[in-house]
Amino acid sequence: MVAAEQEGSRVLAPGERAAAPWTTFAGKTVLVLAQHPQAVTRLLFDVLPLLLTDPRINVVWTTPDLRYRWSSEFDDFLRELGIARVPWWQVLTTPYDLVLSACFGGLDETIGPKVKLPHGINGARSRIGPFPDEEQHDLRREKLMKDGKVVASALMLSHEDELAVLAKSCPEALPHAVVAGCPSFDRMLVSRRRAKRYRRALRVCPWQKLVVVSTTWSEHSLWGSDPTVFARLRAALPSWRYRIVVIVHPFIWLLHGRPAVLVRLKQAGVTALPYREGWRAALIAADLLAGDHGSVTQYGAALGLPVLMTTRSLRDVRRDSTADRLSRLATPFDPRKPLLRQVRAALKAGGSRDFADIALSNHGQATEIIHRVCYELLGIPKPGGVVLVRPLRRPFPIDLSDVE
Distances from the Cα of 317 to the Cαs of 1, 125, 312, 332, in angstroms? Predict the structure, then answer.
């Protein structure tokens, strides 16, 4: 099913009046928006498990009809995750008890109380967007309001500093803001005790250092600015001493195609992870992270990893954003200079103890806060008991042996 689908027969789904005769579990219906993989995985892995165990709650997915559409690779991605969607035209006339989104796209067109979460490390965003109107942060009036009203019933923020940004750009949204922290980071924190298990899954020997290399998208990213960087790192770092695992942003997979990405990763001689999951466990297992301004690099720094950060990617970054602030704490990474020497220097320098507090608030508490807010908007009592933060699954590297 495509996002821009012609109106036709209505799909029977929870929340639809026509579906009532066939309904087994009656109750509240939550609509989840699937705009891109980052939004999908944040909601599917980190937020929906807080609701899916409740038999009073049904979940429906959809993909908004936006000004762009990803290739069929995105449809395959959703099918692999077991996500079936109702058409967007149907959603536009259906009221829901709660709408969850980790992206702004389409949220203002849905009917029902809305929770907007970040899909990266924060809500303000460090990156300068691909469209002319996105050179500023994400917490601005044009995105937060429509027809004089704030779109989100609850606007989840990652840090108290974002309240000051919001106060200047859109003070009307302040009553809707909730400084929650990050549920993804919560899961990383509780998973630290599994570091040895993750290292074994990534085939890291006890005497090896695990170097995780992360690239976001754009021509100024680590891989975009230097297409040979993975291969040269592999050649420069002795394999008996270093193991390299690469994390590639989902947009690179979607835009340039899985076959091309797989071939280039195999040519570079590195181990890679699928973009659906595994990158967080790899950060827990890592000894060092080399990357750019993307959220993965920032999460690694928040975990206390030594970070090599390329300054080329700062062309994509807003001044005084979290990525900009990280660039002042990380060891500068210049792929044109001797790589082994830079890796050793970063390992010797160690990680920053300050960045976790710079980037994120409420460490370990975001899961509980989001759970509470969702039930308040649903208008039903929370289930009893403590809200558990689920540890991360072990990572599964991509098998490149059959790639030609």
Answer: 35, 9, 10, 16
Rounded Cα distance between 129 and 96, Å, is 30
* Per-chain mean pLDDT for the chain: 91
pLDDT of 136 = 66
| Number of residues assigned to the chain | 404
Is the pTM above the cut of 0.85? yes
Print burial letters for 127-156: b (CB count within 10 Å at least 16), e (below 16).
bbeeeeeeebbbbbeebbbeeeebbbbbbb
pLDDT tens-digit map of 258-281: 999 999 999 999 999 999 999 999
Query: Whose structure tokens read 């300054």?
Result: 311
Reading phi first (left if > 0) and then psi (alpha if -120 to 50, else beta), residue 84 is in beta
Per-residue pLDDT tens for 39-93?
999 999 999 999 999 999 999 999 999 877 787 889 999 999 999 899 999 999 9
The residue type found at 57 is I
Sign of CA dihedral 338, 343, 348, 354: positive
User: Do residues 100 and 60 lie in contact, with contact meaning Cβ atoms separated by under 8 Å?
Assistant: no
Q: Residue 66, SS3?
A: coil
User: Tokens at residue 185, please?
Assistant: 């980071």
Q: How far apart are CA 115 and CA 330, in angstroms?
A: 33
Give the pLDDT confidence score for residue 131 in this predicted structure: 55
Distance CA(333)–CA(346), nearest Å, equals: 9
Rounded CA separation 32/329 (Å): 37
d(CA 40, CA 282): 20
What domains appear along the chain, each with residue ranges and CATH number?
Answer: 17-186+362-378 (3.40.50), 191-359 (3.40.50.2000)
